[in-house]
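Lab notebook: predicted structure, single chain.

Context: the supervisor wants predicted structures on file for every construct in the current expression panel, including those that have not yet been purified. This is the next one on the list. No modifications to the sequence; it matches the entry in the shared construct table.
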Amino acid sequence: MNIAEQIAAMRGRRDNALNGMQSIIDGASADDARTFTPEEQTSFDKYKAETETVNAHIERLEAQEKLLAASARPAQSAVGDSANSLNGSGNGYPSIQLIDKKLKPGTSMARYVMALIASKGNLVQAEQIARNYWRDTTPQIADLFKAAGQFGSVHDFMQVQKAAVTAGTTTSAAWAGVLVYAETMASEFIELVRPATIIGRLPNLRKVPFNIRVPRMVAGITSANWVGEGQSKPVGSFSLDAVLLPWAKVAIIVALTEELARFSDPAAENVVNQEMIAAISQFLDKQFIDPAIAPVAGIHPGSITNGIVAIPATGSSIAQITADLGTMLSNMASAGVPMTAPAWIMHPRTAIYLGMARGATDAPAFPSMAANNTLFGYPVITSTTMPLGAGPGFLGTIILVDQPQIFLADDGSITLDVSREASLQLDTAPTTPPSPLTSLWQQNLIGIKAERYIYWMRRFDPAVQVLTGVPY
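Prediction complete. Output recorded below exactly as produced.
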């Protein structure tokens, strides 16, 4: 056997030992949580000793394999093409297909979630699953679980405050280096979320920290005038107040079938990613632009359109559309908004209509829509969360926002937790306390909870213009 084959064989022995330990634990738990019988204790200790012995030998083999690689003496891969299918060890885990090292963004986070699911939250088993199946492509996942096991949970590991120890570095394998992996996975996932949300596609929002007071413009300067030689210059003023941007937490739970999440092939990884991204982005988009969302102290911010007096659309002819959009631009400019980075927000249906609209000579009425997705020189952001009213015509809304006039406090990360034993109220508007409850364990479901801290607020009301009743 070459080194790779020896490592694979040792991992198979370790998996069998871990499964034996788990079977004994499950048997005791099923019988009123009793303690082990003498025979069970003997078997458990035997499996435990086997696991520790095999782990030590695997570490020696892996160290030798690394030394060979560093010395430019290539170690052979595991057993040829059969190494791509890890379903022959009899360990009870689903068949896993190794994929190319050029992974899609978000794959690490999806694998992290699926390892937790497959291990039923057992960090030791999650480490072994991650190391067995993805050691060649995402080894940092196993390292994260190994370090987290010392603290009882990944959350505790991430939150622990160290004192009276040597300062951690990003290259320290002991503890701090693994934090880089966890941060990389979280930031990798949020980079996928950003282009899926309206907020993420508005790059010029004014970024501010949480829980600080910032000045806000209430009214612009309107006192400028011509001044003749030797005459006094007018003194202008503008109204300011100070606002506090608190923190707010958005939490979403996505329920998936365990069969889908456990089948850890690339397609399932994409599904897990897309489910989490869709849940977060759809909610944030609605909260950001829906005029019905008013701020609630200690709970959530109001939308950027809440309280804005809307402009009613006058019709669907090219002349009427141009006049309505011109009114929005004129109102913003007349109020003294700097207009350094305006952007339009509309439903995709509205954007398609404007891109296809034709003038009297059958020429495109708004050619820049098709050319570079801009309207009167300003970018167009589309989202299906933009409201479409009921009834004839399904009237829509167009928003014009000057991006720097919106404060945004965002910690830039998403926290994920996984459970298969919890009970949930499967409702988009759950009661407190939640009722009725659905057992994830009983219905073979997996709950993935995502949390993000974020808050926004208008800096200057005229910087947001809303056109309603859009019939196109």
